[in-house]
Amino acid sequence: MIKRIQSRDHAGYRSLVRLASSARARREQRATLLDGAHLIEAFRAAGGTAETLVASEAGQARDEVRRLFDETPAHARMLLADRLFDDIAQVATPTGVLAVIRTPAPPALPARLENCLLLEGIQDPGNLGSILRTAVAAGVGRVLLSKGCAFAWSPKVLRAGQGAHFFLALHEDAPLGAVAEQFDGPVIATDPRAALSLFDAALAARCAWIFGTEGAGASPALAARASLRVRVPMPGPAESLNVAAAAAVCLFEQVRQTGRRRA
């Protein structure tokens, strides 16, 4: 059954507004919004079932939106007046379709971690989403985030991740120091002062990569847990790389050296 909503006073609409506008509501309800066909398609491809699918009246008139709205598994469906949909859209040009999904609880950490990322204090949603997207492309299956990182399931991080979330085990508020201490393989941190170039390092197929805040990098306490420090050679005058760019360079150098393929 499709609920048609024309009023801002409707309880279902007010719930959508809270999710769209409040990070606190998203965390407390363990729910978030997927805005647009690409994210919803990726969620569907990963076997997800939405709590609610929402379309605008104008969106419902388009074949792509109507197909997603009709065929994506969901517990409920809403059709909003265009003016209401535009109020909760997460992008400048509304796509006409969004989904409310439950954000999964962090899975239990396995006794032995495979190749993984340890992210400390990554606050920019665009950077975080880009790192997650790169991780999936490079065959990494697990990302651990410290307190102080952007909420991994916020709409901005989801848009930047382009569906990567649905193929990763994500652990928020993770004890990165303890994980690095217990990891029984190379723990690698980037450091612009390191003597060893990334391209001269012998990278294993199984590593724990540390990437720190956009400005200061990893904290001294976490960086001290690294068994290897490498620098990304930069012949140009720039002082540093964007953290998302640095992560991409490192992970794909690892792919190049080890020939890893996604399982």
Structural account:
The chain has 263 residues and is of the alpha/beta class. The chain has 2 domains: 2-102, Ribosomal protein L30/S12 (60s Ribosomal Protein L30, Chain: A, 2-Layer Sandwich), CATH 3.30.1330; 116-258, SPOUT methyltransferase, trefoil knot domain (Alpha/beta knot, 3-Layer(aba) Sandwich). The protein has 11 helices and 11 strands. The chain has helices at residues 11-21, 23-29, 37-45, 57-60, 63-71, 82-88, 125-137, 155-161, 176-182, 220-223, 243-258; strands at residues 2-5, 31-35, 50-56, 74-80, 97-102, 116-119, 142-145, 169-171, 187-190, 208-211, 228-230. The longest helix is centred in the last third of the chain and has 16 residues, at 243-258. The radius of gyration is 20 Å and the shape is elongated. 38% of the residues are buried.
Largest sheet: 6 strands, parallel
Shape label:
elongated
Oligomer: single chain
Fraction in helix: 25-40%
Please mark out the parts with pLDDT under 50 across 5 or more consecutive residues, or reply none. none
Strand order of the largest sheet: 8-7-6-10-9-11
> Tally of extended strands?
11
Tell me the name of the CATH class of the largest domain. Answer: Alpha Beta
The separation of the N and C termini measures 40 Å
Question: What is the fold-level CATH name, i.e. the topology of the largest domain?
Answer: Alpha/beta knot
Question: What Rg do the Cα atoms give?
Answer: 20 Å
- Count of individual helical segments: 11
**Strand percent estimate:** 15-25%
Structural class: alpha/beta
CATH architecture call of the largest domain? 3-Layer(aba) Sandwich
Number of domains: 2
How much is the average pLDDT? 92
Order of helices and strands: EHHEHEHHEHEEHEHEHEEHEH
